[in-house]
Design brief:
Layout lengths: L4 E8 L3 H12 L5 E4 L8 H4 L31 H14 L6 E2 L4 E7 L4 E6 L2 E10 L21 E4 L13 E5 L5 H8 L5 E5 L6 E2 L8 H9 L1 H23 L6 H14 L3 H7 L11 E2 L3 H5 L4 E4 L3 E5 L2 E4 L4 E3 L2 E4 L14 E2 L6 H4 L18 E3 L12 H22 L3 E5 L1 H15 L3 H4 L21 H7 L8 E5 L15 E3 L6
Parallel strand pairs: 1-2, 1-6, 2-3, 4-17, 6-18, 7-16, 8-9, 8-16, 9-12, 10-11
Antiparallel strand pairs: 4-5, 5-6, 13-14, 14-15, 19-20, 20-21
Helix pairs in contact: 1-11, 5-6, 11-14
Length: 512
């Protein structure tokens, strides 16, 4: 990366969002772009999360790009290694390698109002870009709770997303802190090998059976020979999940039947009434993400496993103390405590038109226009932005919708011509956010009686989309210029004319 490199588009991150953006830019005929990646390879969260048992809880044929179907998925729910290999394959097939800049962590992005571009400082150099597409993802920066006394712990400590493969857990006393999607995969994977496993459970999850199986050679042959069968399989998986959305967003009481099935799942695997009581949630199913596993509950019944139905409160040397006073001597602590989702660290590194960081702008809650753009941050957009998450389907569907919006955003700038930028109008951002939050009021995520990572520090759901993926795709099909201000570079001035400060803003009506 040279000191004076300038590109049309800078994409941040090389997970599904970043690689998808790169493919879409190439398909739009744009080759003047780079993908800035802080690590040394592509993959995003599927590179970082390599813990034992790591796999996706969305069916493989739905958890892949529609423009890059994979007839070779080995299982209906594929593991981390297969998903990461798929992303490497996408980078190769779509000739993205020349655009990738590895070991280039973004330190700061600052909007230059005079030149109408972003000045980007990375760990490998500096560059400027007309447009920034931030695809860092919400599950990229691990969150480790600040437990009193953790500095005194003499053993090994790591987060599930930063698994230490050099540390052998066999024969060790291990604490698993957290009971989210990662923990229910880790627990049954390490339980047979450790001396003792203590699970610190603040809130029990709802866990349903995982209907997983190997995809036969005959099925894979059929998908290779008749590609429409892959599309049909994907379409069926999508349609089923679209039909489920109403129960999550409008009629949470309909989830009662699913809840009874989940309780039956607990009863089949856990015969001890006391343990079963610990593992049975007291909130509506769906309020937190419904987890899938056939091995989690059986693992918790094994003699070398203790379930502490209380959060970890403090650490005293090698002794872990729960909020209920329970104590456990351990050699290693694994935190499965999630990520910085509503307080993404990348927001602290984006400085907008008014000199404020995105983190400061979002200090009272994340909000954007159609999940993509933020007022005061011209020519900047995010993939998997505020209120684009899903509680029951594939995020790849939402990513592809946002790629449609990104492509039209670039087209609109080309139509405007010259040095121009688009800045989301505050009123448009507020109007969109108000509509989303009004719809959110009756969803299971807001009414289900739980506290989840979907909610920010103020208790506002700034992560989930309260509708179908079809609705979101329709809402992001085109950029409405009426929702944006057009910024133009300062006009040339005469020698004696005072210097204007910054770019001038042109009012553009809808449809202009």
């Amino acid at each position: 990366m040279t000191e004076h490199e300038h590109v049309r588009v800078a994409v941040i991150g090389s997970g599904f969002g970043g690689l998808g953006a790169a493919v879409r830019l190439r398909r739009e005929g744009i080759t003047d772009f780079v993908v800035l990646e802080r690590a040394g390879s592509v993959g995003g969260t599927w590179r970082d999360n390599s813990y034992p048992g790591c796999a996706c809880d969305v069916p493989s044929h739905l958890y892949s790009f529609s423009f890059a179907p994979n007839p070779e998925w080995p299982r209906t729910f594929s593991g981390q290694e297969h998903i990461r290999a798929y992303l490497e394959h996408v980078a190769d097939v779509f000739r993205l390698r020349p655009h990738l800049r590895f070991d280039s962590e973004v330190k700061m992005m600052t909007w230059d109002a005079e030149k109408l571009h972003w000045a980007i400082e990375t760990s490998s150099g500096r560059l400027t870009a007309d447009i920034v597409v931030s695809a860092t993802g919400p599950l990229s920066d691990p969150k480790v709770p600040d437990i009193p006394g953790i500095d005194t712990f003499p053993g090994k400590v790591f987060h599930s997303a930063r698994w230490d493969h050099d540390y052998d857990l066999r024969g060790k006393r291990v604490a698993m802190v957290g009971t989210g999607a990662s923990a229910i995969q880790i627990v049954p994977s390490i339980q047979p090998d450790v001396e003792r496993l203590t699970l610190f459970q603040r809130t029990p999850p709802w866990v349903m059976p995982r209907v997983d199986r190997a995809i036969s050679g005959a099925e894979r042959w059929l998908h290779r020979q008749l590609p429409f069968t892959t599309q049909a399989r994907r379409g069926l998986l999508w349609g089923i999940r679209e039909l489920q959305v109403q129960a999550f967003t409008k009629r949470p009481d309909e989830l009662g039947l699913v809840e009874r099935l989940a309780k039956r799942n607990i009863a089949r695997a856990v015969k001890d009434p006391a343990l079963r009581a610990k593992l049975t949630p007291d909130y509506r199913i769906g309020c937190k993400r419904i987890l899938l596993s056939n091995t989690y509950y059986p693992a918790l019944t094994r003699p070398n496993v203790d379930v502490v139905a209380s959060g970890l409160a403090e650490i005293d040397g090698s002794t872990l103390v729960a909020a209920d006073g329970s104590r456990a001597e351990v050699d290693a602590i694994v935190f499965g405590t999630g990520f910085h989702v509503t307080d993404m660290p990348i927001a602290e590194r984006v400085v907008g038109a008014e000199g404020r960081t995105l983190a400061e702008t979002w200090s009272t809650g994340m909000k954007s226009l159609r999940g993509a753009t933020a007022a005061g941050f011209p020519n900047w957009m995010t993939i998997i932005g505020p209120n684009t998450g899903l509680g029951n389907s594939s995020m790849i569907l939402m990513i592809e919708s946002q790629l449609n919006y990104m492509a039209d955003f670039v087209r609109q700038l080309d139509v405007l011509g010259g040095r121009a930028a688009l800045d989301a109008r505050p009123a448009a951002v507020d109007a969109w956010n108000d509509r989303v939050q009004e719809r959110m009021k009756r969803t299971v995520w807001n009414t289900g009686g739980c506290t989840s990572w979907y909610l920010d520090a103020n208790g506002v759901n700034t992560t989930i989309w309260p509708g179908t993926t079809s609705e979101f795709r329709s809402a992001t099909r085109r950029v409405d210029l009426g929702e944006y201000e057009v910024l133009r570079a300062p006009e040339p001035r005469d020698a004696g004319e005072p210097r204007r400060k910054g770019a001038r803003r042109n009012k553009v009506e809808a449809g202009a």
